């Protein structure tokens, strides 16, 4: 697979005055160093293998040895080898800067339009000459050497880096384009959190406009998915949808009836909404056009669940009416205060292999639904769950949903939409029948069917 994500790092030297010694190190570049991802890198599956770039340091002195040390303001993004070293007169040393896998995930989610202007990651190169009067300074132990060097003695050279994302195909460009509106969701989440806090402070009972009512209006076009949201506190405990062990929920059928009603139905007023769904109440699955030797493919869709409260956590679980058609990753989990969780809905392997007829797509749009259930979790219980190992956390989450009554949960129903170039049917002489409608009782029956992959 050709890499579709190219992340070069271009080091840019900042003005530096060397006034104390004549053996300072000069960062030099004969060609721009770059981070090139390994062959298995893709926008949806960034590689776990670190990628590297090099920076060459040259000792400008002809008579003195230079000792250097390299530091960075993003130690969680980069590894530097060697961190410190000794360069002989007129000598040079190459520094290998590695971008860790977690940083590659974050860069893949950043708006491509802002990457060329990104100027947040810096490197500081400190150097000092090994003078003849440096008694008691042993360069064999560089860590101890730098602890004994006075702060005012070393000279410093600051180096910055730049990133760029270059799509290699229209399909990859479409994937990257979905990240161009990430900042909007981050700002929306922050605004919702502030609104939630203001409501709690004033004792108001209004709900955010996003959850004011359910109508029969056609859903608006989904906005871009934000992948920059901080999900460090969003812990998940499962990667499969629920099976028949979940109890039937009458509210789900009532919600389905409300969605088809001609008149808006206002839900019961509550102090504040527990969660928000972005980009909207419709999941868009894109059909990747067929290529020579490759059939059309139905791509995955994703949405975000956000916790608008700063004082409590949320537990969530996702159900679907089509157990055999999708994987929901994750299907259960926790969302910390003022945080969000990205949910990815993937067509199962057999369905992803090819998209042969328009009838299959029409049936998906008509019948496939996704139910989101949310339960409030006190912050003390949330912190206790985080302290457990994965197996114990799964067991406690299952017990949490058992204790929770359906009336204490908040729910939302997501529809399915297929977009993109729809392939023609294989047999034009056969006229596809109208897709069957899905009654509310059929939805409940589908939810209780056993799943082959759970």
Set out the fold topology:
Elements: E1 10-13, E2 25-28, E3 51-59, E4 66-72, E5 78-81, E6 84-87, E7 92-99, H1 101-108, E8 122-129, H2 142-148, E9 155-162, H3 170-177, H4 182-202, E10 236-238, H5 250-259, E11 275-278, E12 282-288, E13 297-298, E14 301-307, E15 312-320, E16 326-329, E17 332-335, E18 340-347, H6 349-353, H7 358-367, E19 370-378, H8 379-386, H9 390-403, E20 410-420, H10 440-447
Parallel strand pairs: 12-20
Antiparallel strand pairs: 1-9, 2-3, 3-7, 4-6, 4-8, 5-7, 8-9, 10-17, 11-14, 12-13, 14-18, 15-17, 15-19, 16-18, 19-20
Helix pairs in contact: 5-10
Strand portion:
25-35%
Q: How many helix segments?
A: 10
Inertia-based shape: elongated
What is the name of the CATH superfamily of the domain at 275-349 and 361-420?
Immunoglobulins
Q: Could you say what the CATH topology of the domain at 275-349 and 361-420 is called?
A: Immunoglobulin-like
- Going by helix content, strand content and strand pairing, the class is alpha+beta
Termini gap = 30 Å
Share in helix? 10-25%
- The top-level CATH class of the domain at 275-349 and 361-420 is Mainly Beta
Number of strands: 20
- If you compute it from the alpha carbons, what radius of gyration comes out, rounded to the nearest whole angstrom? 28 Å
CATH architecture descriptor name of the domain at 275-349 and 361-420 = Sandwich
User: What does the largest sheet look like?
Assistant: 7 strands, mixed
Order of strands across the main sheet: 10-17-15-19-20-12-13
Residue runs with pLDDT of under 50 for 5 or more positions: 1-24, 29-48, 204-249, 251-271, 450-454
Look at the structure and give the mean pLDDT.
67
Written as H for each helix and E for each strand, in order along the chain, the element string is EEEEEEEHEHEHHEHEEEEEEEEHHEHHEH
């Amino acid at each position: 697979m050709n890499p579709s994500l190219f992340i070069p790092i271009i080091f840019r030297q900042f003005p530096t005055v060397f006034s104390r010694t004549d053996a300072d190190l000069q960062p030099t570049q004969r060609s721009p160093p770059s981070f090139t991802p390994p062959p298995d890198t893709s926008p949806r599956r960034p590689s776990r293998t670190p990628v590297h770039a090099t920076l060459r340091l040259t000792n400008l002195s002809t008579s003195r040895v230079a000792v250097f040390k390299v530091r960075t303001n993003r130690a969680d993004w980069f590894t530097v080898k060697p961190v410190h070293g000794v360069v002989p007169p007129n000598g040079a040393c190459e520094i290998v800067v590695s971008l860790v896998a977690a940083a590659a995930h974050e860069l893949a989610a950043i708006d491509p339009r802002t990457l060329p202007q990104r100027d947040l990651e810096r490197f500081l190169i400190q150097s000092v000459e090994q003078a003849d009067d440096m008694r008691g300074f042993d360069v064999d132990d560089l860590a101890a050497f730098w602890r004994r060097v006075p702060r005012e003695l070393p000279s410093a050279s600051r180096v910055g880096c730049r990133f760029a994302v270059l799509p290699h195909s229209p399909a990859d460009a479409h994937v990257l384009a979905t990240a161009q509106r990430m900042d909007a969701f981050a700002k929306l989440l922050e605004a919702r959190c502030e609104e939630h806090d203001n409501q709690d402070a004033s004792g108001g009972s209004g709900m955010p406009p996003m959850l004011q009512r359910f109508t029969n209006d056609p859903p608006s076009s989904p906005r871009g998915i934000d992948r920059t949201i901080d999900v460090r506190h969003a812990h998940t405990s499962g990667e499969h949808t629920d099976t028949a062990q979940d109890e039937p929920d009458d509210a789900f059928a009532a919600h389905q009836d409300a969605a088809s009603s001609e008149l808006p139905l206002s839900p019961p007023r509550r102090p504040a909404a527990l969660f928000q769904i972005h980009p909207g109440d419709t999941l868009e699955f894109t059909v990747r056009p067929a290529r020579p030797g490759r059939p059309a493919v139905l791509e995955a869709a994703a949405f975000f669940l956000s916790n608008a409260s700063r004082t409590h956590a949320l537990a969530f679980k996702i159900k679907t009416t089509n157990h055999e058609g999708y994987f929901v990753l994750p299907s259960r989990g926790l969302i910390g205060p003022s945080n969000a969780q990205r949910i990815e809905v993937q067509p199962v392997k057999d369905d992803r292999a090819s998209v042969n007829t328009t009838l299959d797509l029409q049936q998906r749009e008509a019948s496939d639904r996704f139910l989101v259930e949310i339960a409030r979790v006190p912050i003390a219980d949330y912190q206790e769950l985080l302290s457990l190992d994965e197996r114990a956390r799964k067991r406690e989450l299952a017990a949490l949903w058992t204790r929770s009554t359906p009336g204490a949960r908040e729910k939302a129903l997501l529809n399915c939409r297929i977009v993109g170039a729809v392939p023609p049917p294989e047999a034009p002489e056969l006229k596809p029948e109208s897709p069957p409608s899905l009654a509310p009782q059929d939805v409940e029956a589908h939810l209780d069917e056993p799943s082959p992959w759970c």
